[in-house]
Design a protein that fits this description.
single chain; alpha+beta; Pdz3 Domain; seven-stranded antiparallel beta sheet; six-stranded antiparallel β-barrel
């Protein structure tokens, strides 16, 4: 049944309800009732198909408090009257709820897509399935730029349902959609509506925005849950709402989430293309002035960027990218970041009223590698920072330590904590065995060893104080 038939069904259902309240109800044909019932059956089928693969996510996060120093006279005031000076907590825990959905099962692990903001600061993550079973989850990887995260739970031989992913590039405004999630802790709530708009950007919610807008009821706790079409295929991840507004919900298109998921599973990080330009939309006034119908204006080109090397200049207007017209800033951004680094693309610019075709070799977005390092090492429960000269002076690192990375955080109960790694440790070497122990000068050096080691574990050479020790870091089962 297509959207037009469903809309006809809605109209007939409304007519049926009106006639039911009048003496002429008997005039409603059985055919009309069947259409209305078939519409109802569509929503029932989607709920039955998708609900079992939707999960409840609960998190515990730790917030550290930075109290200003307490002057001694305040402490003396309390002691003078025989009262103990109150202790102010250094940290406290917060709890939050969200949703997610199982997209893949492999080697006894069930992989779950959700929002980055649901798990970003979580110290502990628990996942509850529809059968009531609860699992402790691990973060596979996160992407703050799109607000997408991939987590996993160990299910062993247990058979768990998996959703079917759709194609968000083919959706149309006005189509019916169904949202499933856990709003305000009300588990597995189903709501429906239509696609109100596509390509929404400029909301200031994420660095990369291309939202699906819907009027399906979405509330706090729905974040990370699926937005489905009438065939039960997931077309988006419910992500955001507008406070004090009704009928305004936003979802990340599933095609964007697919790309993030595939990169995290294959590379352990998100790979994005990079052009290296500052851009702005062309207003009608500017378009008329420059003699173009659309495109984006280049306001600045970064030095040594792919754009500069490819011949793009400030003042150029990009009107085509690899044979496709460029609509606006968001459109160009999505085209570039979805291009594989190293690929040569044809970019058409308008310069001084003339069209020029440029060949540009797309680079890799700066910072994505650093973010990926943090995400990958977070699997072991610790993070590191490069030992800069400023940091050496601040921490009083001995001069005989020439290079390394310093451990800035160790999560309690993590593999790093179990191995004995501590905050302040300086990692100077890493390898799978003592023979292949290699110097660690930056975070990427450690990342390469961890990726190569896989499930074998990593041998770390660590400096703690004035001593040297070796730590075996095993991945968590």
């Amino acid at each position: 049944m297509n959207t037009r038939q469903l809309l006809k069904g809605v109209a007939l259902l409304g007519l049926s309800l009106t006639l039911m309240s009048s003496p002429s109800y008997s005039q409603v044909s059985q055919e009309d009732l069947k259409v209305a019932q078939s519409l109802q059956k569509v929503f029932e089928n989607v709920a039955e198909k998708v609900k079992p693969a939707v999960v409840n996510i609960s998190t515990v996060s730790e917030i550290k408090l930075n109290h200003p120093p307490i002057p001694p006279e305040f402490r003396d005031f309390f002691h003078q009257f025989g009262f103990p000076f109150p202790d102010f907590p250094e940290k406290f825990e917060t709890r939050a709820l969200g949703s997610g959905f199982i997209v893949k099962v492999k080697d006894g692990w069930a992989y779950i897509l959700t929002n980055n903001h649901v798990v970003a600061k979580a110290k502990r993550i628990k996942v509850k399935l529809t059968d009531g079973s609860v699992y402790r989850a691990k973060v596979v990887g996160r992407d703050p730029k799109t607000d997408v995260a991939l987590i996993k739970i160990k299910v062993g031989n247990k058979k768990v349902p998996v959703v079917e992913l759709g194609d968000s590039d083919k959706i149309k405004i006005g189509e019916f959609v169904i949202a499933i999630g856990n709003p305000y802790g009300l588990n597995w709530t189903v709501t429906h509506g239509i696609i109100s708009a596509t390509g929404r950007h400029g909301l200031g919610l994420n660095p990369i925005e291309d939202f699906i807008q819907t009027d399906a009821a979405i509330n706090p706790g729905n974040s990370g849950g699926p937005l489905c079409d009438i065939n039960g295929k997931v077309i988006g991840i419910n992500t955001a709402i507008v406070r004090n507004a009704q009928g305004l919900g936003f979802a990340v298109p599933i095609n964007i989430a697919k790309k993030v998921m595939e990169d995290l599973l294959k590379y352990g990080k998100v790979i994005r293309g990079w052009l290296g330009v500052y851009i702005e939309d062309i207003s009608p006034t500017l378009a008329k002035k420059f003699g173009v119908k659309g495109g984006v204006l280049i306001t600045r080109v970064m030095p040594n960027s792919p754009a500069q090397k490819g011949g793009i200049k400030s003042g150029d207007i990009i009107v085509e990218y690899n044979g496709e017209p460029v609509k606006n800033v968001s459109d160009l951004q999505l085209k570039v970041i979805n291009t594989k680094p190293g690929e040569v693309v044809k970019i058409v610019v308008v310069r001084n009223g003339e069209r020029k075709v440029l060949s540009v070799k797309i680079g890799q977005m700066p910072g994505s590698e650093k973010l990926a390092s943090t995400d990958l090492m977070s699997k072991f429960g610790f993070s590191v920072q490069e030992l800069t000269p400023e940091l050496r002076r601040k921490l009083g690192v001995p001069n005989w330590i020439k290079e390394g990375v310093i451990v800035t955080e160790v999560k309690p109960g993590s593999p790093a904590d179990d191995a004995g790694l501590r905050e302040g440790d300086i990692i100077v070497g890493a390898g799978i065995t003592p023979r292949d122990l290699k110097p660690v000068k930056k975070a990427e050096d450690l990342l390469k060893v961890i990726e190569k080691a896989g499930s074998k574990g990593v041998l770390l050479k660590v400096i703690r104080g004035e001593g040297v020790l070796y730590i075996v870091l095993n991945p968590e089962e």
